[in-house]
Amino acid sequence: MDFVSFLIQVLNSLQYGLLLFLVASGLTLVFGIMGIINLAHGSFYMVGAYLAFALTGMTGNLMLAIALGLPLAFVFGAILEWALFSHLYKRDHLEQVLLTYGLILIFEELRSLAVGDEVHGVTIPELFSASIPLSDNLSYPVYRLVISVVCLALAGGLYWLIQKTRLGMMIRAGSHDRDMVKALGIDINLLYRTVFALGVALAALAGMLAAPISSVYPGMGSSVLIISFVIVVIGGVGSVWGALVAALVIGFADTFGKVLLPDLAGLMVYLVMALVLLWRPEGIFRKG
Amino acid sequence: MKKAQTTRRTLMQAMLGAFASVLAGALLPLGAAQAAEKIKVGLMLPYTGTYASLGTAITNGFKQYVQEQGGKLGGYEVEYSVVDDESDPSKATENASKLVKRDNVDVLVGTVHSGVALAMAKVARDTKTLLIIPNAGADELTGPLCAPNVFRSSFSAWQPAYAMGKIVAERGHKNVVTVTWKYSFGEQSVAGFKEAFEKAGGKVAKELYLPFPNVEFQPFLTEIASLKPDAVFVFFAGGGAVKFVKDYDAAGLKKSIPLYGSGFLTDGTIDAMGGSGEGLMTTLHYADNLTNPKDQAFRKAYAIAYKQQPDVYAVQGYDAAQMLKTGVDSLKGAKFDKDAVIKAMETAKIDSPRGAFTLSKAHNPVQDIYLRKVEGRDNKLVGVAEKALADPARGCRM
Prior knowledge:
The structure holds two protein chains of two kinds.
Chain A: H1 3-33, H2 41-59, H3 62-83, H4 93-115, E1 131-133, E2 139-141, H5 142-164, H6 166-176, H7 178-183, H8 188-214, H9 220-235, H10 240-260, H11 265-279
Antiparallel strand pairs in A: 1-2
Helix pairs in contact in A: 1-5, 1-8, 1-9, 1-10, 2-3, 2-4, 2-8, 2-9, 3-8, 5-6, 6-8, 9-10, 9-11, 10-11
Chain B: H1 2-27, E1 38-45, H2 52-68, E2 72-73, E3 76-84, H3 89-102, E4 107-109, H4 114-127, E5 130-133, E6 150-152, H5 158-170, E7 175-181, H6 184-199, E8 203-210, H7 218-227, E9 231-235, H8 238-250, H9 253-256, E10 259-262, H10 270-273, E11 281-284, H11 293-306, H12 312-329, H13 338-346, E12 349-350, E13 357-359, E14 365-375, E15 378-389
Parallel strand pairs in B: 1-3, 1-4, 4-5, 5-6, 7-8, 7-9, 9-10, 10-11
Antiparallel strand pairs in B: 2-3, 11-14, 12-13, 13-14, 14-15
Helix pairs in contact in B: 2-12, 3-4, 5-6, 12-13
């Protein structure tokens, strides 16, 4: 591998890592901070991608679709929380697994009934459709770089929200001791509804942003589910920075695994996970 | 909405079928004694998950042929038992056994996913049930695992890829990089391509594999850019195919390094590629604008019955029914006799919409492989890449 290729592969790793963070960010909130085992995370991602497809078809522009889709996803999350998840906080993890697994099946069926089983594409907005030449024959799509910037902004925003704001403080306190927070006069139900809805909106945002590069197809949710859990667990459950670092580590492991050790590429991500957990069973950034 | 349509359609088909059988009964009073004979067909196909649309197309094609025969095959009523295999190999043995043992089917028809089909073939061999595979392309099914009671109406992974190897060499490319998922269908496609391409004097510079179903292609595009081959050959299907073609185009590689693929790259995926697929050349046993009258009649009838254009999967389902009919015809109304059916199927000449084909010794179609080029929303026929190409059926002792 010559030096230029190496640099491009580093760029690929960073970009893929940031995309993975975006995909896992919703799960960081719902699983990491609220402590719900949410297997339907991939379904929310899929809902986002299909929303992007449907709304881009109607409005003719992905940016507009995202602007419309985000509030829709937020409301959808709030309704789900009210109808289903709010009954589960005090129950066993197994019941959360059962519910969210059921949701996967329901969302897949609904998707099949509503839009069918074909593969669809979403067009990249005109503004970002260019490519930047990197070498004599390879160029880099601007849209991918835009996604990276959005991911960084999102990571910063989430960190600020959870660690630096009063709302974040309440959320962290709530995940620690629900009853005490309630006793202090905080409306924990509303708080949790908001956080859950935010988690769903983030998962949907990931799906919407990824739709133009990943295309929109049945079963796309399951392709991101496992990797999202891997990232949240490696990063240290509940840590936003941890998830970001973990996503980047996985980005590098996957990219260079494919190039340098193609026979082990499928194993690479899980090898890294095992090593990190041996080194730090609580994940990279888990506090106390 | 969709449900309601299906029901209405089913109802109409049922009425048509009933009408036809009444008519046949009136014209052929002697046939009345045979009306009790039925054949039980077990459809084991994916109706949910990634391959759901393929399973539906195959079912539609199969039922269309039965409808054309007046709702019967060779004079026998057809009774369906349907199972959704979910493209899940871990449930395949149980599902297939259920059809054979509980529903007592005479013939199994399925499936799309090769892993599931391998398990079905095992059940078919163990229980000596007739099996017709309407898609799954794993070479083994008509290779080392071939069996007298296992037939295929589709193709082997080797066939389209081998045809492409010759084409790419003829087009003057000497040095090619291949990319596919690391699973048997991908590996068999690359092997078929390599065999023909290197025989014609080309050289496969590097075989790149990524774990299935990973679709992060960027590291490989970087590698291709630095290797600078004359051309790239890939096998991908579905969402992965769309993403690869779009990424390849967005990386600017399409301009300098031509991309070729085994046909599934551009089947059912062209719209989603949004222009990135334009001009791509692929090889397959079907194309969108064949000129034979059989295909034109088939497409017309299919479009009327199902309100959409048929694809290669529908053709394979249609031909599975045709193969079964040829077999059943030989019974002349007697009780279902598997050995007689097999014997008749082996020598059948199937008048397929793809063009007539016969079956090899290992029961795989000996068929023309077409070179197609993406133009607009179609895989336009360019020419015949290989005439009457037979899978080598390596490892088949039959």
